[in-house]
Each structure stands twice: as structure tokens, then as C-alpha cells.
Amino acid sequence: xxxxxxxxxxxxxxxxxxxxxxxxxxxxxxxxxxxxxxxxxxxxxxxxxxxxxxxxxxxxxxxxxxxxxxxxxxxxxxxxxxxxxxxxxxxxxxxxxxxxxxxxxxxxxxxxxxxxxxxxxxxxxxxxxxxxxxxxxxxxxxxxxxxxxxxxxxxxxxxxxxxxxxxxxxxxxxxxxxxxxxxxxxxxxxxxxxxxxxxxxxxxxxxxxxxxxxxxxxxxxxxxxxxxxxxxxxxxxxxxxxxxxxxxxxxxxxxxxxxxxxxxxxxxxxxxxxxxxxx
Length: 279
Hints:
Helix content is 71%, strand content 4%. It has helices at 2-18, 28-33, 52-74, 80-103, 107-111, 123-144, 150-177, 185-201, 209-234, 236-244, 250-269, and strands spanning 37-42, 45-50. A hairpin with a 2-residue loop joins strand 1 and strand 2 (45-50). Helix 4 (80-103) runs antiparallel to helix 6 and helix 9 runs antiparallel to helix 11 (250-269).
């Protein structure tokens, strides 16, 4: 067993070194031209913090989401749906902070500092992708206990496990091969599509009460993601920044809407989420 763990660790470390080959044509100087940043110096130590306002929003989202997850775990009321929902939220919050450390915050230091050309991704973003697949499937497990059929519960639970394992192997392979698409957010979305579909299929009750609240929760989640893509392709971010020096990009829109979504869960799901009785 120790040998297997050692081999796995060596493969992971070797894969992380492969990320160095995933470079862009963007120089560090050009990278910083497209966003606000601040340089901090403490004696001989200095670093660049990029997108300060975006960093604040994503870290705030992460902290609030972790707190929401802790509330579900602390007040689980012996309901498995609440336990799994809490786990999913805690992982989601951790993932948000990890993602914000590379996509925002320390992205320059991780991908551009002391390089001729910036990297496409970093080991921190790789970690975020791995956390996200477990977070989303933990939430799916929370939805499982709203299903009325034991057979259906088992099928969806097995799928959640396979999804986590399958994506982890996919991610490790992409890391080892230095394949940009395999370690991309777009590939993650493809893996998550069936999981998100199962969120809706797991709601089997009437169009009122808790089932309606759960259905609306995921409808709102899809709508806020549509808002993200609408803002992304509208070009508003570039106009605001280059013409008015206002930094508000698609990630900020997503994170602000997700903060509202977390408060919605706190007001609507936290007091009411419970297991469904089996038929």
C-alpha cells in the first residue's frame, strides 16, 4: 500500500511539472495591462496581487459558503440530505477560495512571475477542478435523499461515485499529458452536465413546498450561470475597464450572484431541507 501511495505521489508531482509546458504567448507585462493590480513589498519580499476587488468578492463567497455548509452540518437533525448538503457547501467554499487564489489574487505569481511567457493554468487551478467535482456530487447526494425509490437512490449514488472517480482519473491523465483541454473548466462542465441534470430529476414531488424550493434553487443556479455567459460575451467588461477604469468582469457578476444564491439557500433551504420518506 505504501508503494502504491508513493507511486501515485510521484505521478502527481511529475504531472504538475508537465503544467510548465502549457504556456501562452502572453508576456507578464501584457498580462498585467488587462487588469488592475497592486504590488506589495515587505523588505526583500514582494508580490503582485491582481484584481483586488475580484479577489475580495471570491474570498467573501468562499467564506460565506463554508459557513453555510457548517450550519447544515451542525444542525443536520439526523437528516442525511442535510449532511451531504453541508459537505457540498464546505467543499464549494474551499474550492472558491482556491480558485480565487489563482484566477484572481495570486494568478500573476503562479502563472507569470519570473517567466518569459505566462502559463495557461496552475497547480492551484488543477486542485480547484478536483474539489469542484466532489462538491457538486456531494450536493447530488443531498438530492438523492429527496428521492422516494431506494433503487433510484442507489443508482444515483453509484453515479456520483463514478463521476468523482472518473473525473479524477481524467484530470490526472490530462495533467500527465499536459493536455490543456483535459485540465480546463470547459471539460469540467461537460462532466458536470449529467450531475446538474440529475439535480432536477431528483426532485420528484409536487410543485409546492420543499420540492418547489429545491427546483427553484437549481433554476436560479442555471440563470446566474446564463448571466455569467451573457456578461462574458457582451464585451461590457472591456468597455467599463478601458473607457471608465471600472473593473467589473464576468467572474465578479457570477460571484456576486452566487453570494445572493447562498443567502437564498440560507433563508429557504436551511430551515426546511429534510429527507424524503421511501415508498
